[in-house]
Amino acid sequence: MSVTGLRSKTAKTEPHSDPLAGVRARGLIELTADVCNGVTRRARVREEGALRIRFPNERFDRLDAVIVNVAGGMTGGDEFAIALNAGPDARLAASTVAAEKIYRSSGDPTLIDVSLRLDAGARLIWIPQETIIFANARLKRRIRADLAADASLTMCETTLLGRTAMGEIMDDIGWREQWRIRRDGQLIFADAVRIDGDAVHLLSRLATGNNARAFATLLHVAPDAEAQCERVREALDQGERACEAAATAFDGMLIVRLVAQHGHDLRATLMDCLAALPDAGLPRSWST
Question: Which end of the chain has fewer CB atoms surrounding its CB within 10 Å, N or C?
Fold first, then answer.
């Protein structure tokens, strides 16, 4: 996978459509983690453009990686790609150092491509912090995962529409997202989100959002995923919550959907769900 190929696969634009194309940000991370002497270590690391990856010392029995966008945010025409590969029996967790911000676009979308690969017996956790879509922003995000039959994947994406505390009006956005998860080459989960135009109006109705501005999907794929469903439901039932959430499990998958009017309410519920899953301890960047 390369950043150069990202645009050709996900978007088509007219030549010279963006007068600022020469100053758009590009970023690439490729990480392969393998087991050496019983410990998961970095086998291959590649950084390009505005993305960096760091490996803080953590308390968990795994390799933790934190991705940093030194560009300070993303805007229309920017292209970013992240590829994480967990070798046989490897234990890898990856997150971001802070919430990612998608700023207004003059026309072209921000392109984000995430690719996850898990070999036999591997355990991979992909839990980036929130993505904040600002007014007049355009985002296209594609997430793909390929798992061995006995691998375990925990992944979550959280998206916030604007800054509710600032009274930001989201009357013109473009958000498109696609998930494709395969186990042993077979497609087991496909999901898509599309919001174009006035998000305030589109999400105001009870059936479409009930005025929600924060959204998350948590997916856990593992041989024992279905057995974790009741634990997650118990976590969701703890106390009063300003976040609506529901969990279901089937075919070796656990899926949790969360919606809220404010990002901090959704974050608290999401952290409780992750705490209920085995070996899904949050990296330090989530609490600093």
Answer: C
